[in-house]
Amino acid sequence: MNGCTGTIDELLAAHGLPPLPPYIARHTKPAPEDWERYQTVYARAPGAVAAPTAGLHFTPALLAALADAGIETRMLTLHVGPGTFQPIRSDTLEAHVMAPERYVVPAETAHRVNGARAAGRRIVAVGTTTVRALEAAGAEGRLRAGPGEAALFIRPGHRFRIVGALLTNFHLPRSPLLALVAALVGWDHVRAAYDEAVRRRYRFYSFGDAMLIA
Predict the structure, then answer these.
(1) Can you tell me whether residue 50 is helix, strand or coil?
(2) What is the per-residue burial (b if ≥16 Cβ within 10 Å, else e) of 28-64?
(3) 103 vs 83, which has greater pLDDT?
């Protein structure tokens, strides 16, 4: 790279292409339009290794429709790391260790979430990585504003302190994301939902279908 100037981030932005997941079969390499297609409409801060796929279902029109229906939306930042995608190779869930992921909870988000919970309203998280950030920042029962690291591995037996419902895509077997879903609804409901998805030929993974766990 003799003669190149600028920071790594500037060079990547000028010459790089988004790394698509390996199961997205292509005869060509990633294209410039994948910067938009493989990204949420509300993404702002760079730093994640992949897009939070549950958020790919949202469009500006859908967010506007939610607002018109009186449903509040609040944002936070979580930098998805490679640990999210590492399969569980240990013999037990208890032996699996999650790598930490950096997050930032804005003060307004913490204020509105805590107020909603105090009023008996349910917090719906969009994506498993959002769940990890909310539960890490709310470990003491109230959502705490500011930066932090989500290092907890959410699995069956976890006591949810912030999240009451989840919108999520369908995940790989032996993944920590699937264990998180099971923590929220139990393995029996997970198996039933995935049996239904396979039978009806739902699409899995990043550009796939989603389910609402409520």
Answers:
(1) coil
(2) eebeeebeeebbbeeeeeeebebbbbbbbbbeeeeee
(3) 103
